[in-house]
Amino acid sequence: MMANILVVEDETAIADLILMNLRLVGHNGLHVSDGNEVMVNIEEQRPDLIILDVMLPGRDGFELMKEIGPLGIPVIFLTAKEELADKITGLKLGADDYMVKPFATIELLTRIETVLKRYKASGHGFELDNLEVRFDEHLVLLNNEQVELTTKEFMLLEILIRNKNIALSRDKLLELVWGFDYMGETRTIDVHVQKLRKKLHLEDRIKTVFKVGYRLEVPR
C-alpha cells in the first residue's frame, strides 16, 4: 500500500537514506528537520505515518508526541537513545514502534509495513447510529447520503472520534485543529461544534463538559 510518510529527522544523511528507500518501495516521503515545523506540516499534509526522531531542534519528539497522539496518526520513534526508560516513555506516549540508530534500512521498511497494516486493519472508518465516517476517503455519510464538511470540521470530528468518551478542553481542540500558534479565540470551537451537531444530527452525542470543553459519547 502506498502511503504518505513524514520523516522528522535533523540529520540530513539519515533523512535522505530513509526518503530514498521509501520511494524505492512506492511510498511518498516528506521531510521536516525542525521540531517547530512538525505540527504545521501535519496539518497541511495529513501523513499516513510519521517517523519521528526524539532529539530535534526546536521541540523534541516526546513533546511533539503529546500533540500527535490525539490525531490518530501512527508513529515510529527513531532515535540514538538506547535507554529502556526512553523506549518506555515513547511507547507510553502512544508511539507504535521504536527503533534505535544505527538501524538496518530493511528492518525499518518492514516495521513501517507492519504498522501500516495494523493501522489499516484497526479501521480507518467509524460508524455511530446512522453516521459513517471514512477517514481515508475524507467522506462522511448520514443515512447513506454524503454530508459536506469543511476541512476544519472534518479534522474536529476526527479528533473527537479518535478520543471518543474523553473530555477535551477547548484549548486542546483549538491547538490540535488550528495549530499551537493559532491566535484565535476558543469561541471558534463552539461554533464548529454547533455546526457538526446540526449537520450530523449529533446533538445527543457531542456533549458539552461544563467549564472544560466537549466529549463525543459512544456506547462502550
The first-to-last residue Cα distance is 31 Å
Radius of gyration equals 18 Å
CATH architecture descriptor text of the largest domain:
3-Layer(aba) Sandwich
Q: Count helical runs.
A: 8
Q: What is the count of distinct domains?
A: 2
Largest sheet: 5 strands, parallel
SSE order, one letter for each helix or strand? EHEHEHEHEHEEEEHEHHEE
Class derived from helix and strand content: alpha/beta
Name given to the CATH homologous superfamily of the largest domain? Response regulator
* Helical content band: 40-55%
Give the CATH topology of the largest domain: Rossmann fold
Low-confidence parts: none
Strand segment count: 12
Shape: globular
Structural write-up:
By secondary structure, the chain is an alpha/beta fold. The protein has 2 domains: 4-121, Rossmann fold (3-Layer(aba) Sandwich), CATH 3.40.50.2300; 125-216, Winged helix-like DNA-binding domain superfamily/Winged helix DNA-binding domain (Arc Repressor Mutant, subunit A), CATH 1.10.10.10. The protein is built from 8 helices and 12 strands. The chain has helices at residues 12-24, 38-45, 61-68, 84-92, 105-121, 151-162, 170-178, 187-200, and strands at 4-8, 28-32, 49-53, 75-79, 97-100, 125-128, 131-134, 139-142, 145-146, 168-169, 206-209, 213-216. The protein has a 5-stranded parallel beta sheet with strand order 2-1-3-4-5, with helices on both faces. A 4-stranded antiparallel beta sheet has the order 6-7-8-9, with no helix packed on it. The protein has a 3-stranded antiparallel beta sheet with strand order 10-12-11. Helix 6 (151-162) packs across helix 7 (170-178) and helix 6 (151-162) packs across helix 8 (187-200). The longest helix is centred in the middle third of the chain and has 17 residues, at 105-121. The protein starts with a strand and ends with a strand. The model has no long low-confidence stretch (mean pLDDT 87). Keywords: DNA-binding, Phosphoprotein, Transcription, Transcription regulation, Two-component regulatory system. Residues 4-116 form the Response regulatory domain. Residues 123-218 form the OmpR/PhoB-type domain.
